[in-house]
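thought: fold this chain, then report.
action: predict
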Amino acid sequence: MAPLVAAVMPIGLVFGAVAATKGLSSLEVVTMSALVFAGGSQFVALDIWTHPASWAALGFSALLVNIRHLLMSASIGTKMPAFSGPARYAAMLLLADEIWAMAEVRAGESRLTPAWYAGIAVPFYLVWVLAGLAGSLAGAVLGDPKALGLDFAFPAVFIVLVMGFWKGRETGTVLAASAAAAVLAHQFLPGVWYIAAGAAAGVVAALFTGERQEARA
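observation:
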């Protein structure tokens, strides 16, 4: 988990710096990171942030961005027989793309335990919150994060995560379908519908390739 913890630092710094340019205080940045704990929806919220903020627009955008967590939690939840009810709920509150990916890999090799999950999730969570705080404090010094190339940290992490699940042509089909749907939705639909479109297309492609594999077997 250490490389992913290190990779999330610049993303948190960028978030904090951008939030500072939007007029959020350091306390507000820390509160958002601690309570929301979802980089994608936090960045989307900043993109549409206005004064006064439209809470309905912010909430709906966060829902669209994070609806993938329904699929992720449904997947990893079946691999948590060692977790009590409260422990499972706590684990889902700390669920993030990176943590889900690592837990899925672990579940394929060994048994998931609450201690192991906490060992990867809690440090990641704390670093995300503290990096956002540091970014908000240094926002005036950092200036535009894009000028330093820090904005690429976010997609870079997801490229690494996706490649970790590569299983050949079937994976490529799912990724291609998801990417095509997301690009088309981004071009022709306002807002963040491209995230939901990409996720839906990926699920359909995965079901289709799975049925083909079963038919061949």
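thought: worth noting. The mean pLDDT is 84.
final: tokens above.
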